[in-house]
Each structure stands twice: as structure tokens, then as C-alpha cells.
User: What shape does this take?
Amino acid sequence: MSLDENRKFWEQAWADGRTRFHRLDVNDFLVKYAPTVFDAGDKVLVPLCGKSIDLLWLCQQGHGVAGVELAKQAINEFISENKLQGSWQDQRFQTQASRLSLYHQDFFHHEGKYEAIYDRACLVALPSELRKRMAEKYSSLLNPNGKILLITLKHDEGSGPPYSISDEEIDDLFGNNFKIDFLDRGPASELRLVEVRKLTKLN
Assistant: This one.
């Protein structure tokens, strides 16, 4: 799948309301592990953020947060539903409180430097040919010793998204540039298993 095909897929998914991945509650694993994975005041990047309220929760914990999303509809709904005040400048919506920035762009074109990345539904949303590129992009955006709170899925449902990601693929994607610590595992449903890891960038 090309980047353009990936963009069109997700834009159409939001337009059609095919967003079962969206959750109304803050992710339990984020609440449980953010205090140990992220340091106080870390600037946290959230790729393919959709309209996740995890963004607001991270801000409430004192983090600077940057969410990146392909679908403009998702960003507009997030701004409207949460009554956010701010302004657009080019591709970025900056909230008045300044702690949260939203970028309407392809994540592979995003630039910046961050202390941390929170990935709940990004890697599992990408086909295999784009996951390697995403792992390389993560490494380029993180400062030395930067951390990733990575939440992935395992299932036997065949195609995705969400895609099933094996232990071997995690090691292949991140093993050369990151120290990988397994944190937790739990059922997402009867057929899907959630896995949580902390990744620390090597100098």
C-alpha cells in the first residue's frame, strides 16, 4: 500500500463512520504505565491520533502533546466535541492553552523532536510494508533515550486493520535502535490480545 492509498483509506473510513477503534474512555494501559514510561513534562507525540481523548488525559498529566492525524474530519470533530479554543496556522491547530497541538498531515512528513511517543492504534493500523518505515520514523523523531509506550495486538483474524503483530516483528522493527521491555498483556476481546511494551531509544 502506498502512502497515498493509506491516506485515502483512512479519510474514507472517517467519512463512512468506520471508526470502531475510537474509544470514549482513556486507555487503561496508558493510565497504568504512562507514569513509569514517561518523565514529568515530556513532550509526547501521538501518531494517527484520530479524536482520542487520550490526548487530553496526557495534557492533564502535565505533558506537552502533539497529535498527528491524516483525516481532517477527525481533528475537526475532536476540536468541536471538546470545545477547544485555538487557531489554525497552515497544517497545525494550536490550542489556546498551548499544551496541545494538532497536525493535519501525513505522519511520515511530520518533523520535530520529542521525548516520548504514545502509540495505541498506529502501528496496528498500518500494513506490513509501512510498519518498517514507521519504526524508522519513530527513531528519527525521538531524542536520545526517548521512550515509546507501544500497544499492539495479536489475533488470528487474517487481514487488518487492525493488524496482528508478532514478537518477532517487534524485535525486527525496533531491536537495532531500541531497548525493548515487555510490560503487560491482556484481552481486548475474545479474539484479540493486547500487548504493551516500553521502548527506549539507544544512544
User: Anything to note?
Assistant: The chain has a mean pLDDT of 90. The beta strands are 43-47, 64-69, 86-89, 92-95, 100-104, 114-119, 142-155, 178-187, 192-201. The chain is about 30% helix and 30% strand.
